[in-house]
């Protein structure tokens, strides 16, 4: 098991999403685990769409619940859902602003193989802006059947996996009418990813580039 965050100082995570609820669905258990273990950790979250609507309120409350005790800064923009290519420059500027705001120890965002155009576009922007950072690309189950073969796993305790499902159902009433938005889907994928890394539950991520330091210094 590889420690991915620094010891002895406050770590910093940049977390990016095209839509409200993407981050908690893709990495909510991981955020919950990290924030509980590291009080005061800095989390900069950027969400490209949903700003100014009820969805922004949901997202802010959800992220606060998924990042307890964190120094959490949330930005929710108003780009229209499903239209990222038409608003490429705005999205690019927002990602670059986040990059310029600080040097994160870890980046969490969508992965380039995601079939949703907005997720895929943001994944490209993240790779361009965060060139020297470990980036975990989260997965979101969907109609397109685009779940791939992830390369990085973050085990979740059963309690965290259950809490993730509870919080997702509690904080996003606007999504409850979607046929896939249920406890069974969230825990089912976490259980499958758990099997793949010899634990009960896990979240899995795509890592396209990893720079190693084996010097031991
Ligand atoms: Zn999304």
TrEMBL record:
GO terms for biological process: glycoside metabolic process. Coiled coil: none annotated. One of its GO terms (molecular function) is hydrolase activity, acting on carbon-nitrogen (but not peptide) bonds, in linear amides. InterPro entries: GlcNAc_PI_deacetylase-related, LmbE-like_dom_sf. The keyword Zinc applies. It holds the Pfam family PIG-L. Keywords: Zinc. PANTHER family: N-ACETYL-ALPHA-D-GLUCOSAMINYL L-MALATE DEACETYLASE 1, N-ACETYLGLUCOSAMINYL-PHOSPHATIDYLINOSITOL DE-N-ACETYLASE-RELATED. This is PIG-L family deacetylase.
